Amino acid sequence: MIRFLTRGLIAALTLTLLAGCSNPETPQEVAAAFWQAMAENDADDVMEYSTLADTAAFDGYQRSWTDTVPSFGRVIIEDREATIVTRLPAEAGTEGERLELVTYLVRFQEQWLVDYNRTGEAILNPSPFNSIMGELSRLGEELSARFSSSSDEFEQQMEQLARDLEAYSEEMGRQAESAMDEFGKKLQEAMRELERSVEEALKDNEPTPEKDRVILEQAARDLDRQADELSDPTMESLANASRTVAETGERFTRLSEDTLNRHRDEWQQKLAEMRADADEFIEQLRP
Fold first, then answer.
1. Which percentage of the chain shows pLDDT scores above 90?
2. What is the percent of the chain with per-residue pLDDT over 70, rounded to a whole number?
3. Secondary-structure breakdown of the chain: helix, strand, coil percentages, each rounded to the nearest 5
4. Shortest CA distance to 202 belongs to which of 186, 214, 189?
5. Under 8 Å CB-to-CB from 256, ≥6 apart: which residues?
6. What is the tens place of the pLDDT at every residue in 100-129?
7. Contact of 282 with 187, CB cutoff 8 Å
8. What CA–CA distances, in Å, run from 35 to 42, 43, 79, 217?
């Protein structure tokens, strides 16, 4: 929670500083100014910083953005187009999940502008990945509290992986099929190994509380089912697998201390290997 509040404060400070600049120039500055205008429901400024041609066409993407403070992630600039990963909070007054999308920008007459229609498409017609993002975000605190800082870092990595899959689905479809296939095979085998380890824990001669057995049996079933889907990996199956692995880590935190301590080192090692594979995969996606 603290890290999310910190990010929000940093983003708010960034927007405040940028608001003082009369002419945002970089894609990041223009995106920040655009979302600030959205938060203020200022159709004139939205039109100034985007491709919106008429204030009468301003619809706010059919949401209320009042006081919304986004955070920004990876930026890709390719000639006269740019994309910025943008993370928006749930709509005010709802219990929805954080919205992960891409702010698209185009270079027009030597000025960067947010592509109003293309950016809005991700909001008006969200992809199936959106539900994954909020669910993954909720796992972090309990993981760090009981499993280890290493597992918390792993969960963050898998969360970021799912975000990258969401944000760069088009680029992956065109450029990264081989990397996706390779990572899918590695992740599938790693999940199989973790599944076997969990099944061996169920056969442990040491007494295992019934509650722990239920947790481990469910973890093994989920790992098996999701690993099957990686036989022909897609962006969706990779994101789902990332979620399943993160959920498995969350389940481990609910085990009794005795059960967890007996298998902690082995499971942490397997999770570390998955994290290394995820790091390599993400590096291959970088422009």
1. 28
2. 69
3. 65, 10, 25
4. 214
5. 209, 211, 212
6. 788 999 999 889 999 999 898 877 776 544
7. no
8. 10, 11, 23, 46
Question: Strands 99-108 and 81-88, how do they pair?
Answer: antiparallel
pLDDT at residue 221, as a whole number = 93
Residue 138 has φ and ψ, to the nearest 5°, of: -80, -10
Q: Which residues pair with 71 in a beta bridge?
A: 87
Helix 235-252 and helix 177-202, axial crossing angle in degrees, nearest 10:
30
Q: Of 195, 188, 199, 196, give the one whose Cα is nearest residue 228.
A: 188
Average pLDDT over residues 268-276: 79
SS3 call for 223: helix
**Residues 26-51, mean pLDDT to the nearest whole number:** 95
Question: pTM for this one?
Answer: 0.45
Q: What is the CA radius of gyration of the chain?
A: 21
Is 131:138 a contact under the CB 8 Å cutoff? no
∠ CA 146-130-224, rounded to 5°: 60
Q: What is the mean pLDDT of the chain?
A: 76
Q: Write down all domains in the chain, each with its CATH number in brackets.
A: 2-126 (3.10.450.50), 131-285 (no CATH)
| Residue 189: HSE in the Cβ half-sphere, 13 Å Cα cutoff | 7
Q: Which H or E run contains 88? A: strand 81-88
- Over 90: is that where the pLDDT of 34 sits? yes
Torsion from C-alpha of 149, 151, 157, 161, nearest 10 degrees: -160
Residue 51 tokens read as 């491709």
3-class DSSP state for residue 25? coil
| HEC string for 117-171 | HHHHHHHHCCCCCHHHHHHHHCCHHHHHHHCCHHHHHHHHHHHHHHHHHHHCHHH
Output the pLDDT for position 22: 53
